[in-house]
Design goal:
The chain is α/β, with parallel strands linked by helices. Strands 1-5-7-8-9-10-11 form a seven-stranded parallel sheet. A five-stranded parallel sheet has the order 17-19-20-21-22. Strands 13-16-18 form a three-stranded mixed sheet. The protein is globular, with a radius of gyration of 27 Å. Bound molecules: glutamine (GLN) and zinc ion. Glutamine binds next to loops.
Length: 745
């Protein structure tokens, strides 16, 4: 093995997997047709990799939904409630639920935008190899072999599987199940060896986060057992998404595994850690030097230098990707409308494979990397740079003074009511946007359609009796894309799809150059809405961290620097909104927690720039202008201090499902500004009674005074329909009024 990749996109060049699975769910095609599409997609990937010249070709990286779910099915970790179904129906029920059986939870795969299905494990879990010889990794291995391709089956490693699982009963530690799980892995390895597999890849990305002594012991135990198997393929343990912990690497170094994968892109510290443990003598290192998570071309010189720097520390260096390529789009060739200056800097999965092969050749027989033309550089905006250079302290004035000023200026009651921004996106709105894109309607007709919708939403909110209104966001397809399309420095792709979860794929914009705002982005819609009502209309923006988190971001300068450029554009937008008479402005940061580094020691620096960017965006306003922010979760944990540091006047968060607990938590952490704990869960069509929301408000009032308590749903309403939205908001206003009356009466 000289070259390898850790995984490849499985969705197909034309999103064939999405079409096939959704057709299957809708009953339009049967299981056979779905299976056939799967086989075609796999064959395409394997033969494509072989033809490109990769010699370590992975298999079992395909999935009809998710690799963690595949692992649960492989080891028969199927909760009782799904057992009355079988085969694909059971599989998809675990992923998506059926009538009265909810699905397993889904959560983010480390700090990526991919989501996995969380295994649910408890004291009763008994692992076994569910399908014996027909199990997926075995079947895929044989399938590739029948095509003449000898692959390296990829499995989620046992430690990662257990540590990412959720205990079904509180107090249960999933590591208690380690030995039973490793028994099943042993069986899989033995069977794979029996089928002829030379190598198996075990993915252990959990090793790049901080790990306890107990966890390191578990790692040692698992790999000691697997290493000792008398008949097994060679083992490659892949770590990725950061620098591996020295303890973990030491364990792997001492184990019998034949190869270790390290991510030198997200984990530049890996060179040092590798040296600090004395290297991996007699082992192969898969050097992840081609970025599997971002879309930039590899700097070949730098990549080769990294490989050269570790040559003496290991037995052999194999050139690889930093992680699976499933996190990048498939093929840059398809992007014919990208600016050549931008395109020249990009590589998608297919191009990254070619890079790996070229680097492998350069490393093994000194075949020089084809002298590539000078890479184009990022666009520089001198004006933006100069302005940022002279930005001083970006902290707002005294919070008590602001509070008083805003109360007077806005004339709001205690327990003021509002929403998070979006209103239901009806088929008519979606059609209007699609027509606009396709050029089927004139600009004027489109503006009229949006204005009509805004007028309807304003009238509805007046009728409901809400205190701070919104325009409803009908013009936005997506909260990041909408702004990316209007900012300089961002580009959109035509086919750049990546899997977010299951059959949901996203097309993240590419932030490639200095960011600037050529013209106002939201002012027209906000002021139109404000012209229709005397109540304050809240302007709606997406914050700098979220603008980066859901995009592919340039890697030629620190994220912190790029965040400041986005923040400056938002600061100008906020100034324009304020000047146009908008008195309340919300800057959403739902991704603030997502970008939190996996390692403790890196978190403070991240939060520092993230908070700084938010403050840069929001600190230019008058004391009377009220800044809101919104986050879609209630477990603040590590970031609770940062919430206060953002210094928004009002923060709305999810809280209904956790019964307002976080209001007390925030208070305890020293948060003193306004707080809008979501009083109802918008993720379901259920209409909560006023009494239920009232109860939530009374609970919140134990930790916050009425003037600082806001009343709002958990999140935006765009995925809901009007009937339940209207009914729920009516109850919300009733609940707020009842509590208010009690307080005054
Ligand atoms: N303002 C956005 C909305 O209401 C916020 C979305 C989000 O938090 N993800 O849709
Ligand atoms: Zn939200």
């Amino acid at each position: 093995m000289n070259t390898t990749i850790l995984g490849y996109p499985r969705i197909g060049a034309d999103r064939e997997l999405k079409v096939a699975t959704e057709d299957y769910w809708a009953g339009r095609v049967g299981a056979d047709a779905l299976a056939e599409t799967g086989a075609e997609l796999r064959a395409e990937v394997w033969t494509g990799l072989r033809d490109a010249g990769v010699d370590g070709i992975p298999s079992n990286t395909f999935s009809f939904y998710d690799q963690m779910l595949d692992t649960s099915v492989l080891v028969d970790a199927v909760p009782e409630r799904y057992r009355r179904l079988d085969g694909l129906d059971r599989y998809f029920a675990m992923a998506r639920g059926v009538q009265d059986v909810p699905p397993l939870e889904m959560t983010k795969w480390f700090d990526t935008n991919y989501h996995y299905i969380v295994p649910e494990l408890g004291p009763d879990t008994r692992f076994r190899l569910a399908d014996g010889a027909a199990a997926k990794p075995l079947a895929e291995y044989r399938e590739a072999k029948a095509l003449g391709i000898d692959t390296r089956p990829v499995l989620v490693g046992p430690l990662t599987y257990l540590l990412l699982a959720k205990p079904s009963t509180s107090g249960f530690g999933t590591l208690e199940l380690l030995d039973g799980l490793v028994d099943v892995y042993a069986e899989v390895l033995e069977r794979l060896a029996g089928s002829g597999a030379q190598w198996v890849q075990l993915d252990e990305p959990v090793l790049v986060a901080d790990r306890s002594e107990e966890e390191i012991d578990a790692l040692a135990r698992a790999y000691a057992r697997l290493g000792q198997l008398s008949s097994r393929p060679r083992l490659m343990v892949a770590t990725y998404f950061g620098t591996v912990g020295a303890d973990a690497l030491r364990v792997l170094a001492r184990s019998r595994v034949e190869a270790v994968g390290l991510d030198f892109v997200a984990g530049p510290g890996n060179v040092e850690v590798l040296a600090s443990v004395g290297g991996l003598p007699r082992k192969t290192l898969v050097a992840g030097v081609v970025d599997g998570r971002n879309v930039w071309r590899t700097d070949a010189k730098k990549a080769l230098a990294t490989c050269a720097s570790v040559l003496g520390l290991v037995d052999q260096v194999v050139v690889g990707t930093s992680c699976s390529l499933m996190h990048v789009p498939l093929d840059l060739e398809r992007e014919t409308s990208l600016d050549p200056q931008v395109r020249g800097r990009l590589a998608f999965a297919k191009q990254k494979v070619a890079e790996v092969v070229a680097l492998g050749r350069a490393l093994s027989d000194d075949t020089p990397i084809p002298a590539s033309e000078q890479l184009p550089e990022a666009g520089v905006d001198q004006a933006v740079r100069e302005r940022l250079g002279s930005m001083g302290d970006t902290r707002r004035g005294d919070r008590a003074a602001r509070f008083a000023a805003q109360r007077d200026a806005l004339g709001l009651p205690d327990l003021a009511t509002t929403t998070i921004g979006s209103f239901p996106q009806t088929p008519e709105i979606r059609r209007a946007r699609a027509d606009r894109r396709a050029g089927r309607v004139t600009g004027a007709d489109y503006v009229k359609a949006m204005q009509d919708e805004i007028a309807r939403v304003i009238a509805l909110q007046e009728d409901l009796g809400l205190d701070v209104l919104v325009h409803g966001e009908p013009e936005r397809n997506d909260m990041v894309q909408y702004f990316a399309e209007q900012l300089d420095g961002y580009a959109a792709t035509d086919h750049g799809w990546v899997q977010s979860y299951g059959s949901r794929y996203v097309r993240p914009p590419i932030l490639h150059s200095d960011v600037a705002r050529p013209r106002p982005m939201t002012v027209e819609w906000a002021t139109y809405a404000q012209s229709l009502t005397s109540k304050p209309v809240k302007g709606m923006l997406t914050g700098p961290v979220t603008m980066l988190a859901w995009s592919f971001v340039r890697d030629d300068q620190p994220l912190a620097e790029t965040a400041r450029q986005v923040a400056l554009a938002l600061r100008d937008e906020i100034a324009d909104l304020e000047a146009a008479g908008i008195r309340v402005i919300q800057v959403d940061e739902p991704a603030l927690r997502e970008l939190l580094p996996l390692k403790n020691e890196e978190r403070a620096a991240y939060l520092d720039w993230a908070v700084g960017a938010f403050r840069l965006a929001t600190s230019g306003v008058k004391d009377t202008t009220q800044i809101h922010t919104h986050m879609c979760y209630s477990e603040f944990g590590e970031i609770i201090g940062a919430i206060g540091a953002l210094d928004a006047d009002v923060t709305s968060v999810e809280a209904a499902r956790s019964h307002m607990e976080l209001v007390g938590d925030l208070r305890a952490a020293g948060y003193e500004n306004g707080i809008g704990p979501g009083v109802y869960d918008i993720h379901s069509p259920r209409v909560p009674a006023a009494a239920e929301m009232e109860e939530n408000l009374r609970r919140a009032l134990r930790a916050v005074e009425p003037g600082r308590l806001w009343v709002n749903p958990d999140c935006g309403l765009k995925t809901r329909a009007y009937p339940e939205t209207e009914a729920s908001l009516r109850n919300l206003v009733t609940a707020a009024r009842r509590v208010r009356d009690d307080l005054t009466g």
